[in-house]
Amino acid sequence: MTNDTPNPGTDDAIITLEGEDGTSYNCQILDIIEFEGQEYGILLKLKGQGEEPAPESENDEEEESLVIMRLLQRDDQSIFRTIESDEEFEKVVAYVEELARAAAGAED
């Protein structure tokens, strides 16, 4: 999951991530946030953009979905990693939800 990170919010902010099962997914970088001294990427997994077709199933509703990943910097590369800790993930999700509520309140 190593990618040079384009500017979030621009048309070129599309990256390809590889899942643990080897399937590739295209994601748009919506934002990069900092929380408790760590950077996280808020990504939109794009509908129907996997390079390898998934086997058909009863739940074959491939939808766009939000993904939050830890962002690490190594040398000149940005690396997205899955957040392994449930506690860390829940804290980051709560923070992102708080940011979304604040942004929605500012628009009113």
Question: Would you give an account of this structure?
Answer:
The protein is built from 1 helix and 6 strands. With 108 residues, the protein is of the alpha+beta class. It has one domain. Strand 5 (65-74) and strand 6 (77-81) form a beta hairpin. The relative contact order is 0.18. Residues 1-5 and 50-60 have low confidence and may be disordered.
Secondary structure topology:
Layout: E1 2-3, E2 14-18, E3 24-35, E4 38-45, E5 65-74, E6 77-81, H1 86-107
Antiparallel strand pairs: 1-6, 2-3, 3-4, 4-5, 5-6
Key structural traits:
1 helix; 108 residues; alpha+beta; six-stranded antiparallel sheet; 6 strands
Helix content estimate: 10-25%
Radius of gyration: 15 Å
Number of E strands: 6
The rough form would be described as globular
Indicate the proportion of strand residues: 35-45%
Model regions low in confidence, pLDDT < 50 over at least 5 residues: 1-5, 50-60
Task: Provide a compact summary of the structure.
This protein is an alpha+beta fold and 108 residues long.
